[in-house]
Amino acid sequence: MIDNFRGIVEKSLSQFVNEKVNDKLQKALSSADGYNDNIDVEIGKAEVAVTKEQELIEELEEVSNEPVIVTTEEEIEGYVLIKLMLKESIDVNRVYYRDNKSYFNVLLDDNIRKWICRLGFNTSNKYIQLNDELKTTHKLDNVNDILLYKDEIIDVARQFQ
To answer: Under a CB-based contact definition with an 8 Å cutoff, are residues 109 and 98 in contact?
Structure first.
């Protein structure tokens, strides 16, 4: 009698396992699709956040009649380049920055009186101004042009040691 049901039980068990495996695979595939959908949703949220931030900046400028200070990626790149140039001459932990409305200061010891240079990237005429005796200003076509003035930047930083 048991032998009569053995084939049916084995077939049923096999079918049950196959259904469970298929369910798991379907869930995994749908969650992968959901993951991609989540990425798209997050990108959309980020775009909306950037747009809202820009709108808030514009509103603040209108209300206060003063431009809001925004540190740009270009200014940070310039700061990092300058820190890399100075690493052989001074302890880079002493190098800081402060952004202003019209220029970006690179400072020694976070002291505004010890500014090494000022980066002007907020207009179409980009420049670097060094804190030497003549307050020398050089026109820049792009951020990497800062490298052309490595020796001068190092000399300015050394005068504050």
So the answer is: no
From residue 88, give the alpha-carbon distance in Å to each of 93, 94, 154: 12, 13, 9
- Residues 141 and 9: their CA atoms lie apart, in Å, by 79
CA distances for 44 relative to 34, 40, 57, 111, angstroms: 15, 6, 20, 41
User: What distance in Å separates the CA atoms of residue 77 and residue 104, rounded to the nearest whole number?
Assistant: 11
Number of helices followed by number of strands (H, E) in the chain: 3, 5
pLDDT in tens, 66-110: 666 888 899 999 999 999 999 999 999 999 999 998 899 999 999
Torsion of CA 67, 69, 72, 75, to 10 degrees: 120
Pick the closest to residue 156 from 63, 93, 82, 46 (CA basis): 82
What pLDDT does 113 receive? 94
Inform me whether the pLDDT recorded for 51 exceeds 70: no
Residue among 132, 134, 137 nearest 119 (CA): 137
pLDDT tens readout for residues 38-50:
555 555 555 666 5
**How far is 73 from 76, CA to CA, in rounded Å?**
5
**156 contact partners, CB below 8 Å, separation of at least 6:** 116, 117, 130, 131, 132
